[in-house]
Design brief:
234 residues; 11 helices; mainly alpha
């Protein structure tokens, strides 16, 4: 009698591990769709002006799926703001890749962060977590990741171009984002333009590093000064 053909492909499809992976993948996709739908609504209307039913409709989902994946509208709001801030962090890194001098690098970062409203959106999430401490860990992780990725990107640029940084990369990253949040929030309250915000950021940040050419010129000046002193003494 011929042997019965193996049924491995069918068994693999019904394998519990395979089903679990498929479920996780579908869950991640749905979470992403809900975040994509909610973010522009929250930015335009704010938390009170956005209904769960509107978010669900925009994502072609059910309102119950929002509560299943995020529990509350407030938690969804904070996660949207945190995700958008990390997207902004990556965009600033990409915008600054073409910079050839420290000044160009800082300007590219400042122009990028002041061009949109991601920081203002994140500030609303910060205010919300003051009353909802259960949401604070997500904000904390987001800020630490933002600083870490910023420090890594800055250190890479310094090494790539041979700049002499005036501060440690982690300090530079934290200082940049602290200034960005402060300047942008104040500017929004005063109705300032993105150009004015960028100019203020550059003024407050000041010089971040010295380029190779700057360092060489400084060394040349020092050497000339030393030579003149020696000649005078001789």
């Amino acid at each position: 009698m011929a042997e019965k053909p193996a049924q491995e492909p069918f068994e693999a499809a019904g394998d519990p591990k395979h089903a679990a992976r498929a479920t996780r993948s579908a869950g991640r996709k749905m979470r992403s769709l809900l975040l994509d739908a909610a973010s522009p609504l929250f930015r335009e209307r704010g938390l009170p002006g956005t209904a769960i039913t509107e978010i669900a409709a925009a994502a072609n989902a059910f309102p119950s799926q929002i509560t299943y994946y995020f529990r509350t509208k407030e938690a969804l709001f904070v996660e949207c703001a945190c995700r958008d801030l990390l997207y902004l962090g990556r965009a600033t890194e990409q915008a600054a890749l073409k910079a050839r001098t420290p000044r160009e690098y800082t300007r590219a970062l400042a122009e990028t962060v002041t061009a949109g409203d991601s920081i203002a959106f994140f500030a609303e999430a910060l205010t919300l977590t003051r009353r909802r401490q259960d949401l604070a860990p997500l904000v904390e992780r987001t800020i630490e990741r933002l600083h870490a990725e910023g420090a890594r990107a800055y250190a890479g640029q310094v090494a790539r171009h041979g700049w002499r940084s005036l501060r440690a990369p982690d300090e530079s990253s934290r200082r940049f984002w602290a200034v960005a949040i402060g300047v942008i929030l104040e500017g929004y309250a005063m109705g300032r333009s993105p150009e004015a915000l960028c100019a203020e950021m550059l003024r407050v940040l000041g010089e971040q590093a010295k380029s190779t050419g700057d360092t060489a010129r400084l060394r040349l000046v020092d050497e000339n000064d030393g030579s003149s002193h020696s000649d005078g003494e001789g």
